[in-house]
Amino acid sequence: MMSRDTGHAVYVQSLPESARLLQRARYVMRWGDMDAFGHLNNAMYFTYFEQARVDWLVSLGTGHELVLANVSCTFIRPLKFPALIEVELYGDNPGNSSMDSYYLLRNVDEDNVLCAMGHGTIVWYDHRKGGAIPIPSVVRKAMID
C-alpha cells in the first residue's frame, strides 16, 4: 500500500484493492523524452501520468479544472528508447472535492513489464475563486460505473 504519514514521502508499492481502472492508454516514447543516459527522464513519467489523466477527462467530456495536492512516483525499472508505453489510471477514495489517483506505467515492448507506479491526490478547483469545488457528477458517475 502506501504511507500517509505527514512529513514523509509517499512511495506506492501496490494498488489498493478498492482502486478502480479508469483509463488505459498507449503512448510512443519520444526521442526527446530521454535523459543523458538514454533512459526516460524522471520528469517525463509525470507527463505520461498527466496525459492519461487528461485523456480520461476528455473522454468524459469534462474540463481539467483541478490541481494536484501531491504527486509521487516509485521508479521500478528504467525505460530506454524506443519503447511503447502503456499507462493505466486508477481512481479511489472520492471525497467531496478530491480523489486519489494511481498510475501504472508499463513497457509494452518488454512483455508489459512494470516500470513505475504513481500516486496523486486530485482536487477539483475553481481557479477564479481560488477554492475547491465538488467533483463533477460525470466524474463521480465514472467512478461508480
Q: Please give the oligomerization state of what you see.
A: single chain
Biggest β-sheet strands, sense, barrel: 6 strands, antiparallel
**Distance between the first and last residues' Cα:** 24 Å
Helix segment tally: 2
What series of H and E elements makes up the topology? EHEEEEEH
Strand content: 35-45%
Number of strands: 6
Which parts are unreliable, with pLDDT below 50 for 5 consecutive residues or more? none
CATH architecture: Roll
- CATH homologous superfamily title: Hotdog Thioesterase
The CATH C-level name is: Alpha Beta
Task: Please tell me the total number of domains.
Answer: 1
- The helicity comes to 10-25%
Secondary structural class:
alpha+beta
Mean pLDDT: 91
CA-based shape: globular
Radius of gyration: 15 Å
CATH topology: Thiol Ester Dehydrase, Chain A
Task: Provide a concise account of the structure shown.
The protein is of the alpha+beta class and about 140 residues long.
Care to describe what's here?
This protein has 145 residues and is an alpha+beta fold. The chain has a single domain, classed as Thiol Ester Dehydrase, Chain A (Roll), CATH 3.10.129.10. It contains 2 helices and 6 strands, in the order βαβββββα. It has helices at 42-60, 137-144; strands at 20-28, 66-75, 84-92, 98-107, 113-126, 131-132. Strands 1, 2, 3, 4, 5 and 6 form a 6-stranded antiparallel sheet that branches. β4 and β5 form a beta hairpin. The longest helix has 19 residues, at 42-60. The protein is globular, with a radius of gyration of 15 Å. The mean pLDDT is 91.
